[in-house]
Each structure stands twice: as C-alpha cells, then as structure tokens.
Design goal:
The structure is a single chain. By secondary structure, the chain is an alpha/beta fold. α4 links the parallel β4 and β5. The protein is globular. The model has no long low-confidence stretch (mean pLDDT 86).
C-alpha cells in the first residue's frame, strides 16, 4: 500500500482514511485520491487488498481475483486489518477518527472491517459489493455509513442492496 501524510503541522493529531481499491487493484486512481485527501489534512493509506504486487493484467483476471477474495472473508479481513493497524500506528493519527473507504470489491473489504468489529468513525462504499457472506457479521458494524451505489451495478443485485439496507436498519 501507499501511505500519504499531510505536510503541514506534522505534530497535530489528524483523522485518517484507509482506502481499499476496486476490481483492477491498487492503481493510480486510488493513489491520486489518497494524495487529494492528504492535501485536505487526512493521513491516508491506500491498501493493496489483493496482496503485495498482485496486479491483474486483464478484466478477466481482475474478476477472478475479486471473486476469490470475495469468497475468502478471513483473508480479506486480515489484509484490511493489517492496513488499519499500519495506518493507526502512524504518528499523528487520531485513533478514534478513522474511516474505511472502498470501491467495488474494496467496498466489501471496507464493510468487512466494520463487520469484523473494528471501531471506525465511518465506512464509505463507492459502488461496492455489499453482501455479508457470514450471518454472524450482519449486526457487528456499529458505525456511520455512506453508500454510493448504482441500481444497474452488475456485481450487486437489487436483492443484495435490499438485504444490505435491512442489515443497516437492524444494526441501527
């Protein structure tokens, strides 16, 4: 992953954001978002949830990697938790103000962190995969959530969106 720290007022405690990439893996887009957020005063870690150096070379390979990770909740959680721990170990991170932000498969990873019981100030999912594969996870996420999701998303059905809404309502 890539850690970006704001340059000004280095000794000041700051909120932090862990970013989980989309199907195509950690790339220039997430790195640019990390730098823009750091320019606004956040400490940011753009995490590599596929594993160090794993970059899909085609859309088919990206879909295979995402499908594999989607089916392996423990591995995805371990990787996100490692990113979270690395981010929160940085000097100047305001521990109680950490947000997880994810795109597509990264949205699932971000919510996986919250569903695993990690204390977060919030979770943001951009066109994320929303399902909870493990029933015991459905009420663990005790944080604020912002979900930006299109109704025609090919990876998440309307039924999955409805089930996710129900999960959030039950978790309050």
């Amino acid at each position: 992953g890539v850690i970006v720290v704001p340059r000004r007022e280095a000794d000041k405690k700051r909120p932090a954001i862990v970013i989980a990439h989309d199907l195509l893996g950690l790339g220039d887009y997430q790195k640019a978002v990390a730098h823009r957020l750091a320019d606004r005063g956040y400490v940011v870690l753009a995490a590599d949830i596929y594993g160090q150096g794993v970059r899909p070379k085609s859309n088919d390979e990206a879909n295979r990697l995402a499908l594999s990770l989607r089916g392996d909740v423990p591995t995805m959680r371990r990787r996100m938790m490692a990113a979270y721990q690395l981010l929160t170990s940085q000097p100047g991170v305001y521990f109680s103000k950490v947000v997880a932000l994810g795109y597509s498969i990264g949205g699932l990873a971000a919510f996986g962190l919250a569903r695993g019981g990690t204390q977060l100030a919030g979770v943001v999912s951009m066109w994320g995969i929303l399902e909870a594969k493990r029933p015991e996870d459905k009420l663990n996420a005790q944080t604020r959530a912002l979900i930006c999701h299109g109704t025609l998303d090919p990876l998440t059905s309307a039924e999955a969106v409805t089930a996710f809404e129900t999960e959030l309502q039950r978790a309050k």
